[in-house]
Amino acid sequence: MGRKGSSSWLTAVKRAFRSPSKDAEKKTARRREEPDQEEEEKHKREKRRWIFRKSSAQEQQQQVPQAKASPLPAVTPEQRHAIALAVASAATAEAAVATAQAAAEVVRLTRPSASFVKEHYAAIVIQTAFRGLGLGLRWKARRALRALKGLVKLQALVRGHNVRKQANMTLRCMQALVRVQARVRDQRVRLAQESSAAVSRVSNKSSFSCDTSFWESKYLQELAERRSMSRDGSSFADDWDDRPRTMEEIQAMLQVRKEAALKRERALSYAFSHQVS
């Protein structure tokens, strides 16, 4: 179909480019040749009466060489150029039509189907739902994290307060223990000094009555101090004996009292260390 259309188009172009004078000359030449052709045909018909009739294929073969033998009309270079341009434009038009058809086919083939559009829309809806769910979970996680941070800060404050309170209590106990130890140490030093002074005085003096009164005063002073320090000071008052004693008895009593003071000091330090731990 394309070839027929192109050939008819080319013939129309050729007719348009032909000059009318040449067409008139060709018509007159054809009119002149027509009587001669009629006479020849009559002569042939007379001959064909006595000769068998030839096939139509042979007649066509005879007509084709006659047509080929007829001389072609002369064509100028301008007409040839115009014909070439027409042929090129026709080929270009055919190529443009083929390209347009191919593009239309490609568009038809690449056009998404209805099922594909539905699937794409469903995928978008699912993705949107999941994104919304993810945002909700993220917001809840951030809220829980903030609450947890607040709880941790509160625990840190409480622990810091408790630690400071415990540190203050420990410091107070340590200060009390240091004061008790210093007091006991001073008492021990004082008792040692007093015992040494008493021994020296007893050895130098001959009378024992004055020594007895001196030691009695010392015992009474020590008893008052121990009552202020210890919790059960009444037992010492009940056990007090104001009878005159010998030097050995006095030294034995002083030694016993020193040992008792050391035991009390150890008991106090142990109780304090146990309380702190």
UniProtKB/TrEMBL annotation:
Claim: Lipoprotein is one of the keywords in the record: no
Top-level taxon in the UniProt lineage: Eukaryota
Coiled coil: none
Keyword RNA-binding: no
Span list, region Disordered: 1-75
Key words of the record: Calmodulin-binding
Biased composition (Basic and acidic residues): 20-34
Compositionally skewed regions (Low complexity) per UniProt: 55-70
Molecular function, one GO term: calmodulin binding
Biased composition range(s): Polar residues: 1-10
PANTHER family for this protein: IQ-DOMAIN 5-RELATED, PROTEIN IQ-DOMAIN 18
Stated family: Belongs to the IQD family.
UniProt-recorded name of the protein: DUF4005 domain-containing protein
The organism of origin for this protein: Musa balbisiana (Banana)
Lineage: Eukaryota, Viridiplantae, Streptophyta, Embryophyta, Tracheophyta
